[in-house]
Amino acid sequence: MKAGAEKSKRPAKPAGGGAERKAIYLVYGEDEYRVRTRAKELVDSLCPPAEAAFGLEIIDAAVENAAEGILAVRRALEALRTVGFLGGRKTVWLRDATLFTKDIAEDLKRAVEELTDQIKAGLPVGQTLVVSALKVFRGSAFFKACEAAGTVEECAKPDKPWQQAEYARGQVMEEFRRHGLKPVGRALDLFLDRVGMDTRSIVQEAEKLAVYLGGRKDARPEDVQAIVSLSRESAAWDLADAVGARDLQGALKILRQLVFQGESAIGLLHALEFRFREMIVFREALDRGWARPVGEGYGRKLAWREGPEIDAALKALGKDPREGHWFRGMKLAEQAQRFSAAQLRDGHAILLKAHEAMVSSSVPDALQMELLLLKLLAPSPRDA
Fold first, then answer.
1. Is 88 helix (H, G, I), strand (E, B) or coil?
2. Given this structure, which CATH class describes domain 236-377?
3. Residues near 327 by beta carbon (within 8 Å), at least 6 away in sequence
4. In sequence order, what are the residues at sequence separation of 6 or more whose Cβ sits closer than 8 angstroms to the Cβ of residue 40?
5. What residue segments make up the domains of the chain, in order of their start?
6. Vertex 127, ends 126 and 133: CA angle to 5°?
7. Of 110, 157, 178, 252, which sits 20 to 30 A from 340 (CA to CA)?
8. What span, in angstroms and rounded, lies between the C-alpha atoms of 347 and 134?
9. Do 6-155 and 161-227 agree at the fold level?
10. In this predicted structure, what is the pLDDT of residue 298?
């Protein structure tokens, strides 16, 4: 199964239509939004909202210490051992649990062992336990008991950066389809650039875009630009993109907006340093003939050569530029081509000096950042 997919032995209809109703459901994984929404979906199917007043008990298990964790486990056990109203079925939701990681206190571990023993012995007739958690130690007796007695679903995110980018792109495409939106040109990639890779943000911003478009279904780049909010990380990328495009006026405008929003000048400076390091790598690869643009229009991308020397040099960077998303790689190559190799090295040196000055000078950070942009982008004798 591909990384990033939801892995499960998922029942079609856990609570009705003659389908088997399991006693245990464990939903976990790094994708917090998917974990929460999938657990809510399960709970609603097991205990419809009309029955929730007497048939559902929710126990918040996002605890900060062992004492709170023990209390949450005790409440769960008590709820499971208590007969439902008039003998009816009952669903217990242990929500957002932080109790099942590898390194927990001994007294909390003993409480979790008691819950595990209850799962192994079988829950009372009519009782169902749903557990949602970001992290669960897969080698624990608790995890193995849930696997043996019920259904386990993992909402995982991929590990590698390029897989994360593809996973997030798939989430965007899924939300666009759900709202009937058809991206035009580079609207989808622009959306992803602005929102980032957080699933919750993707879902919320796609819904906002759909409401903004009204009855129109074609989502254009200008629509995304107008209504989709920038994540904190994407905001810094927007500034770096303007600098990479050598757009001084655009960079100054974005900088002033970010300063008004209270963004850290040091954080923005770090983003620019990182962008110049990336452009230096791409400029070098282009100059050496290791990479070359191919294709036309929107489908334009980089074609990379292979060979022992190239592999050794690129892998020694720590982050191989070939492993990134093709769209971003092409963007970085295009930006690198707007500077000579010497200009990129000079720019990086200017950024390092600005970093030193910012932590030691009494000049306001906003003014130092504006001066920095002028040094990086204003025409110079070297340009001539």
1. coil
2. mainly alpha
3. 186, 189, 301
4. none
5. 6-155, 161-227, 236-377
6. 150
7. 252
8. 42
9. no
10. 61
Length of the chain: 384
What CATH topology corresponds to 6-155?
A: Rossmann fold (3.40.50)
Q: Give the phi and the psi of residue 26 in degrees, each rounded to 5.
A: -115, 120
Contact 22, 150 (CB under 8 A): yes
Q: What is the pLDDT of residues 344-374, one digit of tens each?
A: 999 999 999 998 888 777 788 889 999 999 9
Tokens 């643009």 belong to which residue?
293
Residue type at 65?
Answer: N
Question: What global pTM score does this model have?
Answer: 0.54
Side chain identity at residue 380, one-letter code = S
Which of 101-105, 193-197, 240-244, 301-305 has the lowest average pLDDT? 193-197
pLDDT at residue 207 tops 60: yes
Residues 148, 141: Cα–Cα separation, whole Å: 10
Going by pLDDT thresholds of 50, 70 and 90, the confidence category of residue 20 is low
Question: Cβ of 139: how many Cβ atoms within 10 Å?
Answer: 8
